[in-house]
Amino acid sequence: MASNRPAQPTPFAPNETHTFGYGKDEGPWEEWNPTADSVAPVRGRHRTGKQRSGGGGLARSSTVLGVGVIAAVGGGGIASASPDQAPVSISMPDLSSVTESAKALVTDGGSSTPQGSTTPLTTAGLTSVDEAHGATDAGEALRDRIMQQAQSQQNRADTATQKAAQTAAAQKAVQLAAKQQDEAEAKAAAVKEKAEEAAKEKAEAERLAELAKSYALPTSSYTLTSTFGEAGALWSSGYHTGLDFAAPTGTLLKAVHSGTVTEAGWAGAYGYRTVLTLDDGTELWYAHQSSISVTVGQKVATGDVIGRVGATGNVTGAHLHFEVHPGGAATGIDPTAWLQSKGINP
């Protein structure tokens, strides 16, 4: 630190002509210039010392002012407000005590640099973890607490995300299981339905096979020439009402099923015709016969001969015209379908 500038000459400095009342026995006059050894330097700019307890302490600004006053005082301890007035005697204090007081006030207890307190202003919001870090690490403790809170929030978010994913996976698993169960049930139902259909078909085949034992074709060695429903001018109704089995004249005609002969004789365009009535009331018509072998009221069994193939009535050749009338109805049905329902395929 640079030394203080030399003091300016004072108008009241003693010399050979101006003694201002000082005697020769007081010694020679010397100009007082405070140095670093005599006065502690003031550190820091515009620093104002805090008021010390106990009263009686001076503010730092007062100390500096006092030092300035002392600097202005001559070595003889006198000062003058004006060069025209007589100098006033000033009592000089002990410089060593002034120096120590100024030093104590300026340095504030020996510390050259102001220090901030590490003690927190308040403990509000501090946790036991914060206190464990110590008062000197309060900022780090706060940072750790913020990081812990952020990590806690992240953990909660991760937990919620994981829970949502688990819930979605569980729902998907339930839906998949339900779908698989539905598919399995549908497959089982299809298999069951198919098995039931197969069983029905088998039962029907067995029934027809058994029934076929009691039914037979009306003739053999034949050729089907006209089927049911064919349209044409050859038939008075405008369409063919039966099934024609073409065969040589004299071919045997047989009872399709057991029943009773209800008609046997000439029937106009049908020629010689035999009507066989079954137990369920169905009538079977045998037309265009060359001869009849049964009489009305006669009971016959399956396969019994009832007549022979001929060409009587409205015909173009020898054949059997076969009709089926359920319940004795005037209008017949398709003989082919009826025969097939009895296990017979013409």
List keywords for this structure.
nine-stranded antiparallel beta sheet; 11 strands; rod-shaped; 346 residues; 5 helices; 33% helix; two-stranded antiparallel sheet; alpha+beta
Produce a short descriptive summary.
The protein is an alpha+beta fold and 346 residues long. The chain contains 5 helices and 11 strands, in the order αββαααβββββββββα.
Topology:
Layout: H1 60-72, E1 78-79, E2 88-89, H2 95-107, H3 128-133, H4 138-212, E3 223-224, E4 243-246, E5 252-254, E6 259-266, E7 272-278, E8 283-292, E9 299-300, E10 305-309, E11 319-325, H5 335-341
Task: Give an account of the 3D structure.
The protein is 33% helix and 15% strand. The protein has helices at residues 60-72, 95-107, 128-133, 138-212, 335-341; strands at 78-79, 88-89, 223-224, 243-246, 252-254, 259-266, 272-278, 283-292, 299-300, 305-309, 319-325. The protein is of the alpha+beta class. 15% of the residues are buried. Mean pLDDT is 76; it is low at 16-21, 53-59 and 72-81. The longest helix has 75 residues, at 138-212. The strands form two sheets. Strands 3, 4, 5, 6, 7, 8, 9, 10 and 11 form a nine-stranded antiparallel beta sheet that branches. A two-stranded antiparallel sheet has the order 1-2. The radius of gyration is 73 Å and the shape is rod-shaped.
